[in-house]
Each structure stands twice: as structure tokens, then as C-alpha cells.
Amino acid sequence: MDGKEHQHIETNEHLVREQKVQALRAQNIEPWPENISLDARCADVIATYKADHEQEYTVAGRVMAIRGHGKSTFATIQDRSGTLQVYFKQDALGETQYRFFSQYIDTGDSIMVSGGSFKTKMGEISIAVKSFKLLSKSVRPLPAKFHGIVDQETKYRQRYLDLMSDKEVRDRFIKRSHIVRGLRTFLDEHDFMEVETPMLHPIPGGATARPFITHHNALDTDFYLRIAPELYLKRLVVGGLERVYEINRNFRNEGVSTRHNPEFTMLEFYTAYQDYIYIMKFIETMFRRVAHTVNGSGVATYGDHIINFDEPFDRISPKEAIIRYGGIPADQLTFDRIDVACATHKVPYEGVSHEKKVFGLFEACAERNIVKPTFIIDYPVEISPLAKRDAQDHNKAARFELFIAGMEIGNGFNELNDPYDQAERFHQQVKAQDAGDQEAMHYDADYIAALEQGLPPTVGVGIGIDRLTMLLTNTTTIKEVILFPALKHQKS
Q1: What is the C-alpha to C-alpha distance for residues 410 and 283, in angstroms, rounded to an integer?
Q2: Which of the pair, 372 or 9, is modelled with greater confidence?
Q3: Among residues 113, 175, 299, 395, which is most buried (max CB within 10 A)?
Q4: What is the C-alpha separation between 366 and 5, in angstroms, rounded?
Q5: If pLDDT is split at 50, 70 and 90, which confidence band does 256 have?
Q6: What local confidence, expressed as pLDDT, does residue 477 receive?
Q7: Proportion of the chain in helix, strand, coil states, percent, rounded to 5
Q8: What are phi and psi of 193, to 5 degrees?
Q9: H/E segment holding residue 79
Q10: Which residue has better confidence, 78 or 428?
Q11: Backbone dihedral region for residue 123 (phi beyond 0: left; psi -120 to 50: alpha; all else: beta)
């Protein structure tokens, strides 16, 4: 069936249902009446069924299928707990009520049913309906494919259709909620305090990214949608809230891909008097706990990969990752030979430090091949404008990024708390911005003033919740774990 034929059939069905609405109202029957009280969900009926005892229930749900047989009809209703078969029989309902069901109830309608539980000859627990009520008339028909919507545009633009017709989709978003709850519970148990910080920033900061700009009419000034809450959260640590976290929405004016959405969800948390070595172990434990809570196991399948969160996470440098995962031997990464490797892999190298060349090769050749949970450490300080320098090597940052299945999942570092060093790095970012870098940071004088009050030794972490959800639900496209992903405006 082509699209035009399907649209024609749907349009005809739509008109038929609109006529039913008019007919109901002509009989003073409200197609969308007030709510009624229920005493069970679909799953409760099945869970509490007893063969030697008919129990009465009142449940409600969306009608997903109707199978009529003369003077009796089976239907399937669906609520948040699952599906349940309900049985309508003219002898039990009476001719008037049974005729009403046959004439006015369609798939997609929400109905209430009351009756006793029983088991059919096929062994399916059901309700023998004694009374029912229309709760919400569906004027448009359900999607043709009850096992899921095939058209990707429809899935994302009309997520409600995707959710009502595909259990796997519903389960994925339920699992996402459990992931967020698991992260929050773990942090709460470790004495972290949940906070909220602004989403409208007078100065973009907290990450190197291109911001969205909006205008506040009353104040007659431009604001930037938050690209990260980092600088505000660290202000709170300065103020004495020594362990804070925020599950936040961030906005970055970047490309859209299978792993990027311009609006996304991050967990950021900060703790005073700890360092990035401590927090790497903390993250391992947190991820392990969440994996077991959500999936019942520390082992997860992601595409063709098996991810084992129960094993210790690796810790290697970008150079070690290039050798191990990028296929470039160590002797090609020396000062006098690395330019050849950069040219081969189209990594900019003219006027770039050796450390930045190594990192460029890591991004180009290695990171996509890292499957096992791995902390990449020893980052160049020049690409870490908010991180403290490593105490042993001032060219490196006391920083890590966590990669799993070729994706960056998290980023963390000892927070730079030297106000003079931070001011100089802001100045370098401004120079980069003046040179055309649209992702470079602005100079934030108020944040420098906060640092001058004294930020204690602090480590901070950002975790991408969308990507973590992808990992724990075996989903390879970020749009499948965001209820309403960003899409180009649909022309009428």
C-alpha cells in the first residue's frame, strides 16, 4: 500500500469517527467525559488471578484490537502496566449496551470495563465485561502497524503514536527514567545535594561549544542558552555547598548526528576535597550499580559489542590509545615523525604543539575503536581551559574522559582554582574567539571574582545521560532515547 492510498483510507476512517462523535452528542453522550475511579491495572488482573475464585475488577485502557464474533467480542486494552484481554458478550451486557459497543467503540478509544476475571480455553486471563464506559474517543485511527511505526519521521514527530504502538519503545523510555533515578539515588546516598542553576546565561561558559542566543525583551539584553552548568555549580562549592549535582538540559548550536542532539541531558556533579583519581573509581562504582539496577546485570549488549561494567575500567593516555586502538606504532608519534601521521589522517599540524597533534590523532584514529569502558587521561592542558594542571607535568591536565563503545560518555578533572591561571586561560580563549573560533569561551569576570574568594580543591564530572541510556538500552541512535528530538521544521 503506497502513502497516498494509506492517507486516503485514514482520511475516510477519520470522517467515519467524526460522524460517530456527532451521533454520540446527539444522544447526549459525552465522548470525553469526566474521569472515573479504578481499582486495578491490567497487570494486576493477571498477577492476582485465581482459578478457583472469580474476582471483580474495574480497569481502563486504550483499545488496541477488536475481534468480533456475532454476539460476542474480544478486545485488547492497554494501560501503563501492559495489555489485557476483555470479553464482551451480548447476554451479559444486554442488547443495547452490546450494540453501543459494536457501533461506537473503535481501536484507539480509551474505555473503562468492570467484570470478573476468568481464563479462556486458550489459557489467556481475561475479564468478562459486565459494564463499560467510553472515556476518550479517538477520532484518528491507530497506526496501521501495531508492532511499531516504520517511518522514522513519524516516529520522532509523533512520538505518542510510537509509544502507543511499540512496547519496546515504551520500555526504553521507562528504562531511561530508571537510569536517571539510579544516578540520583547513588549521589544522594553519597551526601551530594541536588541543585538548580540558570538556563539563561549572560555569558556562555562551562564548555567549549557554540551557544544558542536569545533576547530578553524586558531587560533588553541578549542571553545564551546554557551550554553547561559548570561555572555556576563551582560558585556553589565556593559558597560552601561542598557536594552538589544537577541533572540539567544543555544546548549547543552544533550538528545533528546519531550521537548529537542540540538539546541534551547531562549529569554534572562536584565534590570538594577529592581529586580525579578518586572520582574515576567513584564513577566505576556508580555505573556498575546503575547497570545492575536497570538491567539486572553488569553486562550489557550494545550493537555487536558486549560491555562489562563489572570489570575494572582501563586508564590509558591518548598516545597509548593511538598505539592500541588507532593502528599507529609508537615510532610514528615522535616529535620528528608525527607530522607525517597527521597529514595521512588529515589532522591539522602546522603551528600546533606536539601534545595537540597527539590528541588530534587520538580523535581521528582511536576513540571510535574503544569498546571497553576506558578512562583516557594525560590530556594536554591547552585543550582543557577549566582543568587544573597535573602536579607532575604542567603540560598535562589532571583530567580524564570516559569512552565506552566508541562514544565519549563522561568528562572530569580537578577544577582549576587558581584565579590568576584561570584568568590567563580565559584571555587565551578570547584570543581564539577573536581569531574565529566560535566555540571558544568568553572572559567571565564574575567567575574569576568567585575564585578569588577561594575554591577548595575540587573535582567535577559531566556524564551524558542520553549516551548512557543508549548504552544500557542497546540503542545506536540518540533520537531513539530522546522523546522529542530536534528535527527540521516540517513544511505543510
Answers
A1: 9
A2: 372
A3: 113
A4: 49
A5: confident
A6: 94
A7: 35, 25, 35
A8: -110, 125
A9: strand 72-79
A10: 78
A11: left
> Is the residue at 218 inside a domain?
yes
Contact predicate 59/113, CB 8 Å: yes
Q: Is the pLDDT of residue 445 over 50?
A: yes
Handedness of CA 305, 306, 309, 315 (dihedral sign): negative
Last residue of a domain, one of 142, 173, 203: 142
Q: Report the alpha-carbon distance of residue 123 to residue 121 in Å, rounded.
A: 5
307 and 180 assigned to the same domain: yes
pLDDT averaged over every residue in the chain: 93
Q: Which of 108, 142, 176 is the last residue of a domain?
A: 142
State the CATH number of the domain containing residue 279: 3.30.930.10
C-alpha to C-alpha distance for 244 and 234, rounded to whole angstroms: 9
Q: Which domain holds residue 25?
A: 3-142
Q: Are residues 170 and 302 in the same domain?
A: yes
Q: In what order do the strands lie in the sheet with 221-225?
A: 200-201, 221-225, 213-216
Enter the C-alpha cell of residue 96: 443495547
Q: Is 8 helix (H, G, I), strand (E, B) or coil?
A: helix
The label of the residue with cell 575503536 reads 369
| Residue 46 main-chain phi, psi, to 5 deg | -70, -40
Residue 7 belongs to domain with CATH number: 2.40.50.140
Residue 216 lies in a domain: yes
pLDDT of 433 = 82
Cα–Cα dist 5/65, whole Å: 22
136 with 169, same domain: the answer is: no
Specify the number of domains making up the chain.
2
Query: What is the H or E stretch that residue 23 is in?
Result: helix 3-26
326: in domain? no
Nearest CA among 464, 467, 419, 412 for reference residue 443: 419
Residue range 3-36, pLDDT digits in tens:
444 455 567 999 999 999 999 999 999 999 998 9
Cα–Cα distance between 464 and 480 in angstroms, integer?
A: 15
Q: Are residues 171 and 113 in the same domain?
A: no
